[in-house]
Amino acid sequence: MSVKVLCVAGTRPNFVKVAALMRCLAEHPLFRTKLVHTGQHYDADLSGIFFRQLRMPVPDIELEVGSGSHASQTAEIMRRFEAVLEDEQPQVVLVVGDVNSTLACALAAAKFSLREPFDWGRGSRSRPIVAHVEAGLRSFDEDMPEEVNRKLTDAVSDLLFVSERSGLANLAREGSSREKVFFVGNVVIDTLLAARAGAATSGILDDLGVGAGAYGLVTLHRPSNVDDPGALRGLLSTLDEIASRLPLVFPLHPRTRRRLEEASLSLDPSRWKLTPPVGYLEFVRLQSEARVVLTDSGGIQEETTVLGVPCVTLRANTERPVTVSEGTNILAGTSRDGILRAFDEARGMPRGGRAPTFWDGKAAERVVAVLAGELRDTRLLSLEATG
Ligand code: UD1
Ligand code: UDP
Is CATH 3.40.50.2000 correct for 3-186+359-386? Predict the structure, then answer.
């Protein structure tokens, strides 16, 4: 029988991951896949543009949940996704990353009772199998909402797909059984490598009036960096010192734009190029040609590693330590001294990418090969009983 998969995406970094997975799932004859968009991100520049540029299928199901507090957003996604589970009766729910949509759909699926139990080779099931792509990452920072999402999603998932070796160690330490865990590599890099040629033709540098190698690229959106006006002011004052030495391009996440407005903070346009969020191809081009990237993003730490562009991470920790040990990432913290020191180090760093194990463009293929191996003998128990 074919296996029904619901693949879930809700935010900008989810779309980048799901693009690679959807392509491979669609090519495999065992699977009938539907894409569910939760609507956690809904602005055209955080959502629609990714579907067009990454040639993703239009979502089959849109939950249109929108923004909200953690509890209300998570609860609303669960409530709406449960209705989808009722209609669709999937054997597999595939979630990616660490956002509220990830946890909400994993948790709803883990407690959902299907009308028709099935056997999948590992025994009979009356609940969908929950598969988590990007499992095992840990920042060990309990104040980070994503850390809660990561741990809880992994705890309710049946199949854990790991992007870097630290994830294997974290899951082993937490007692995940080894049969659940698969080291497949990084689907973010699948999409990056597939998009590089398209990104190279982007005219974004000319549009912004910056030259290759002659600017820094900044992104900020972590609540710990932007939600507290004092923290945001301090960070921007240090970055402004850097901007006086190297112009900074700063595509503004909507959370950050709102915080800047609320705090009445403005940045000198002679050294800052502020833009709304840019499309994926434009952003890959901006990263590729930047002298240095300064960011608190998770995905950007990974992309700069493979692009070989120095990255200063404006956080005290990272859940992606391979980007430091093998890549171009420097963990700067958020103090003035730490950031300026890291910036100087990054400027002196030779450019050159080094891809960690399995960050090779084939991670989604590995995920789908594992899923196919696990699910190839799936059969509905009702058919067995009547047949
Ligand atoms: C979310 C994820 C974060 C991820 C980031 C990627 C959680 C807890 N956080 O953070 O892990 O790194 O996405 O970008 O899941 N907004 C808009 N338009 C939109 C979406 C949001 O204006 O399309 C504004 C709203 O004011 C909203 C705020 O941005 O309240 C925050 O959005 P939300 O999805 O809650 O969190 P992010 O900061 O985007
Ligand atoms: N990105 C983009 N345009 C932007 C900023 C980021 O396309 O203006 C892409 C970036 O290349 C990466 C992803 O968005 O693939 C990272 O998303 P974000 O930083 O919002 O989330 P995180 O990875 O921190 O969860």
Answer: yes
Nearest atom in ligand 1 to 46's CA: 23
Choose among 7, 310, 315: nearest CA to 187.
7
CA-nearest residue for atom 6, ligand 2, is 283
Phi, psi (degrees; rounded to nearest 5) at 302 = -75, -45
Q: Is 132 labeled as catalytic in the residue annotation?
A: no
Give me the pLDDT at residue 350, please: 85
Residue having the nearest C-alpha atom to atom 14 of ligand 2: 13
Among the bound ligands, the one closest to the CA of 150: 1
Regarding the beta carbon of 303 and ligand 2, being less than 6 Å apart is answered yes
How many residues can be counted in the chain?
387
Taking 70 as the threshold, does the pLDDT of residue 131 lie above it?
A: yes
pLDDT in tens, 312-348: 999 999 999 999 999 999 999 999 999 999 999 999 9
CB of 15 closer than 6 angstroms to any ligand 2 atom: no
Angle at 165 between CA 311 and CA 158, to 5 degrees: 120
Of 131, 134, 147, nearest to 180 (Cα)?
A: 131
Q: What are phi and psi of 91, to 5 degrees?
A: -85, -25
Burial class of residue 340, CB neighbours in 10 A (0-12, 13-18, 19+):
middle
pLDDT tens for 27-37 read: 999 999 999 99
The domain 202-347 belongs to what CATH superfamily? Glycogen Phosphorylase B; (3.40.50.2000)
Domain residue extents for the chain: 3-186+359-386, 202-347
